[in-house]
Structures are given as structure tokens and as C-alpha cells.
Amino acid sequence: MANLRAGLIGLGMMGRHHARNLRAIDGVDLVAVADPGGDPHGVAGSLEVKSSVEELIAEGVEYVVVATPTATHEEVGTKLAEAGVHALIEKPLAKETSSAKHLAELFAAKGLVGAVGHIERYNPALQELRKRLEHGDLGDLYQVQTRRQGPFPARIADVGVVKDLASHDIDLTAWVTQRKFELVAARTMSKAGREYEDMVSATCQLSGGLMSSHLVNWLTPTKERITIVTGEKGMFVADTLTADLTFYANGNVQTTWADIAQFRGVSEGDVTRFAIAKPEPLRTEHEQFRDAVLGRDADIVTMEQGARVVEVCEAMIESSRTGQFVELSN
Fold first, then answer.
1. Considering Cα of 233, then 234, then 238, then 243, what sign does the dihedral take?
2. Which of 94, 146, 218, 223 has the fewest CB atoms within 10 Å of its CB?
3. Which residues pair with 214 in a beta bridge?
4. Chain segment 82-130, per-residue pLDDT in tens
5. Verdict on whether the full-model pTM lies above 0.85
6. Are residues 121 and 33 in contact, defined by beta-carbon separation less than 8 angstroms?
7. Which GO terms describe its molecular function (predicted)?
8. Tell me: the pLDDT tens digits for 151-168?
């Protein structure tokens, strides 16, 4: 069978990594690239740099990876869908919930595969965490905490830290726990003098009464990417910078010292760091999308899921503006 003909629009910081992976995976040929701003990282190779999505479509591509600024996603995605081209669109799916839902509905109506580039889902630590939670290794789930902090990325100009970074944590929290966000409360701040927020602290409730909290900012001089899930049997800690997953078990040794026992809840048990394979998450994302286009079993972030993430992001921003909890639709 002939290789799939793939295109890429957007040759910036993320686009260069997409180009590398499109060239690396089996069964795919990167046949066309486009960016009206040119090719600053020299990723086109022998390919002519086109200036528009229409020119990509004219090259007979079967699917396109969209790594353009968020504000352009709806327009580019709509043109791809109308041309019958499958698409993997970088997160967030669109700048507003209405635009994201429009894309999801359009791709579904056309019978096309549409996915969103929430790369953290493919982090080996989170893949393993979801399997273990699904297996019941933690028992009843109590709480999810995420911390995603680091320096400001100059490449981001058209959204704030909620839609750029907190969107990762919204998606991974719903995905690893297989729950839906129901209530959101958040406070945002802007300390760098930009139009958009650069810090958010959110407290949320997911289905089944699960609590979550998320601390995200562009104001920390070192990167931190931590997901903590606490439950009946202990606590999992996933570090997605190193792709390490560690389990802290509740102890089963009885505390006989009465003065300590009266204020201690659970006790410390065994600590296990799992040895897991660590493929590059972006490579896994591309392989899964390729398989979806080919009609194989695949684990992609659907556009419906991507639209829900944008909805939760906007609830965080609305909560910060009003000082109230925001209830999400089912």
C-alpha cells in the first residue's frame, strides 16, 4: 500500500518537531509544507515552502498537521474539512469554545478524522498511570493535583497561560481519571504586562466528586511538570519532564505509639518507581493519528474532547473574572 501523503502548515517552534516526526514514522511521506512567514528553522529540506493551506490541498495531501497560531485554527481547519482532508490540529483546538465545537461538528459531518495535539496524553508516565488507575491500583480516587510552571515562552502571543498550558492539565486530568469536569473556580493574574494572563490557580470538581487543583504559570525560572493522584491506596506521582511514574503506598504497619496514632491518618508505606519504556510522546501521537487515518484501532484526542478542554479553559477565565464557581454543561 502506498504511503499516506501528509502536509504541514506552520513551521515555527512546534512545526519543526512535527516535520521531524512526519519524516520518521513508517507509512507516511511528508510531501508539502506551508507557512506565510517562511521557514525560520530550515525544516522544509527539498520541499518548496507554500504560503497557504489552499496550496497544500492542491498538492493532493491526505492529511495535514496544523501548527499555526491558535487564532487561525478554525479557518485552516474549515478549509481542510471542506476539501476532505483529515487533520491533526495543535492544541488548543480553537481560540473560543464555539469555534472548537464548529470544527468538531464539521469534521464529524464530513466523516473525517480530526484530532487535537494534546501531546501530554502520550507521555509514557501518564500512559502508564491511566492503565494503573483503570486497573484499580489506587482504589477510590480522591484528588488530582497538577503543577505546570516555567519561564515565559516568547513563541506564544495570541492566548494566555490558561489556554496554552493549563489546557494540557485539563485534558490529562479528565483522560487519566476518565471523569468529566463539572465545576471550576480559578484566579488568574498578569504580572508580565502582556494582554493575557500568565498565572492561574484553579480548584475544580469532576464527576463522582473527584477534586482537582491546578497551578500553572509562565513566571517560574525552572520547569516543573507534575501530576499527583491521591486515592484510597496511596498516591501516584507522574513527572512528565522525565517520564517517571512513582507510587507511594499507604503503609500497613500499625502505629502503636498512641500520641502519634491519634493525629496520623494513613502512614508511609513502600515507594516504587516503575521501569517503563519511554518513547517520544510526539512520535507516539503521530503514529496514533496515522493509524486512525488508516482505519486502524488508535488512541487520538478527538475534536469533541479538544472542544471540551477549551470550554473548561474559558470557565477558568470566567471564574477569575466573576469570582464565582462556573458550572459546566454535561
1. negative
2. 223
3. 146, 202
4. 999 999 999 999 999 999 999 999 999 999 999 999 999 999 999 999 9
5. yes
6. no
7. nucleotide binding
8. 987 666 678 999 999 999
What the block records as the C-alpha cell of 121 is 496524553
> Hey, is 134 helix, strand or coil?
helix
pLDDT of residue 258: 60
Q: Which long-range contacts (CB under 8 A, 24 or more apart) does 154-158 make?
A: 155/12, 155/13, 155/14, 157/69, 158/69, 158/70, 158/71, 158/95
> In which residue are the cell numbers 458550572 written?
327
- Residue extents of the structural domains in the chain: 4-120+282-299, 121-277+310-327
Count the neighbouring beta carbons within 10 Å of the beta carbon of residue 142: 14
Element (H, E) at 7: strand 4-9
Q: What is the Cα 88 distance to its own chain's centre?
A: 13
- In CATH, which of 3.40.50.720, 3.40.190.170, 3.40.50.620, 3.40.50.300 is domain 4-120+282-299? 3.40.50.720
Query: pLDDT value at position 261?
Result: 55
**Residue 292: what are its φ and ψ, rounded to 5°?**
-65, -40
Q: How far apart are CA 302 and CA 33, in angstroms?
A: 24
- Nearest 5°: phi and psi at 129? -60, -45
Regions of the chain where pLDDT drops below 70? 154-157, 253-266
Using CA atoms, how far residue 59 sits from 5, 41, 54, 148, 165, in Å, is 9, 22, 9, 39, 34
**Rounded to whole angstroms, how far apart are CA atoms 234 and 243?**
20
